[in-house]
Amino acid sequence: MYKILIVEDDEVIGRTVQNHLQEWGYEAVCVKDLKHVLAEFAAFEPHLVLMDILLPYFNGCHWCGEIRKLSNVPVIFLSSASDNMNIIMAVSMGGDDFIAKPFDLNVMTAKVQAMLRRTYDFAGKHHLIEHGGAVLNINDATLTHQEMKVELTKNEFRILKLLMEQAGRTVSREEVMTRLWETDSYVDDNTLTVNVNRLRKKLDGAGLADFIVTKKGMGYMIR
User: Fold this and answer.
1) Where is each Response regulatory domain found (predicted)?
2) Residues 53, 61 contacting (CB under 8 angstroms)
3) Are 148 and 206 in contact (CB under 8 A)?
């Protein structure tokens, strides 16, 4: 089932679009907090985004640009701001299509279907893990936080992925080492310490001080 994220500040329009898409068999969700669109995008991992332009806090072009730092997921703009300048801005920020309001729901659905068909006949799913405003990109082993993008080594990525998947739970050092052994890395206790320290330094540089907490005698944890 394809997942579609709706970024719309008009609750009536958002709910109408959501219900219509659900009737067509899509998993459609409206963004709840328009201050934190990127976090909800990362948590939901949609296959397509329907984006209004005129939004509170930050406009749709801003959020499209932020999404493009993480993902190539298709973005279709739905907006009454359909003058040439807004259309050009939307496309230049990474939008894939533009539908002017008011629109026919069946026309919108046809465009959504066509975009999904073109995109996912040739591309795989884009994987993201989000926690506390930090977004880990599974496809390219990078972490993004507050517009800072961090390149991770193979072991740093695997350690952080495990901890973010288990956020809120203490992960033992033995469990981390076992996860690395299951791939192609042999890591002893000292090597793990070095890798975690290097990872923490990179996280500090991205504004994520104390993102990884040491639980003495137990292991590591992301709160």
Assistant:
1) 3-116
2) yes
3) yes
SS3 187: coil
Give the CATH class of 128-221.
Answer: mainly alpha
SS3 72: coil
Answer for the pair 167, 157: CB distance below 8 angstroms, yes or no. Answer: no
> For residue 7, what are the β-bridge partners?
51
Q: Are 195 and 155 in contact (CB under 8 A)?
A: yes
**Whole-model pTM over 0.70:** no
Please, what are the averages of pLDDT over each run of 10 residues along the chain (223 residues)?
93 95 94 93 94 90 90 89 76 85 89 86 65 88 90 92 91 86 69 92 94 92 90
DSSP 169-216: S-EEHHHHHHHHHTTT----HHHHHHHHHHHHHHHHHTT-TTSSEEET
Q: What is the pLDDT of residue 4?
A: 97
Into which CATH architecture does domain 3-120 fall? 3-Layer(aba) Sandwich (3.40)
Question: Closest Cα partner for 52 from 2, 6, 104?
Answer: 6
The length of the chain in residues reads 223
